[in-house]
Amino acid sequence: MTETSVHALSFEVPGLPPLKSSPTPMLAAGGRQAVRVRALLEAACLAAQQTGWMAVDSPIALEVVLRHPPDGHTGDVTHFLGGIGDVLRDKRLGAEVPLAHLGALLDVALFRDDRQIRRISYREEDASEVSYSVRVEAL
After folding, report:
1. Strand 60-68 vs strand 117-126: parallel, antiparallel, or unpaired?
2. Measured between alpha carbons, how far is 33 from 104 in angstroms, rounded to an integer?
């Protein structure tokens, strides 16, 4: 098990989370979710660097807060959660497509496998701009 002195990690991401339901693999080069995937990876990378977070092998809790204008259609919450889980896990394990296009972002992993997620919290809040926050906590 990888030890970490940081028990939880939180960060903000502009825009919507990546959707797992895209017809092309979410992590594929030039895929429909590429901009969302990159935004999530960049925010997670910065937060991990600032706190010293290392990918954990233990069970985790995942909390997502999606902010958007009132009455704004955003998407399917289960697809958002699946997309976030897939992007933040160790992408080298069982990769479906070549991932070299991610460059250094390929190494951004907050946990090894999304099967480690034991607790999920999701909520939506009204806001003028679309964004979301992610919190990963080692249990």
Report:
1. parallel
2. 18
Q: What whole-number percentage of the chain has pLDDT above 90?
A: 73
Mean pLDDT of the chain: 90
- What residues pair up with 13 in beta bridges, in sequence order? 132
| CA–CA separation, 2 and 113 (whole Å) | 13
- Residue 69: both structure tokens together: 């204008």
Distance CA 119, CA 68 (A): 24
Nearest alpha-carbon partner for 10 in 89, 110, 102, 87: 110
Give the Cα separation of 103 and 69 in Å (integer): 34
What distance in Å separates the CA atoms of residue 66 and residue 77, rounded to the nearest whole number?
9
Two tokens at 120? 């999920």
pTM of the model: 0.91
Please tell me which residue, 20 or 66, carries the higher pLDDT value.
66
CA distance 65 to 51: 21
The helix/strand count (H/E) of the chain reads as: 2, 4
Who has greater pLDDT, 96 or 106? 106
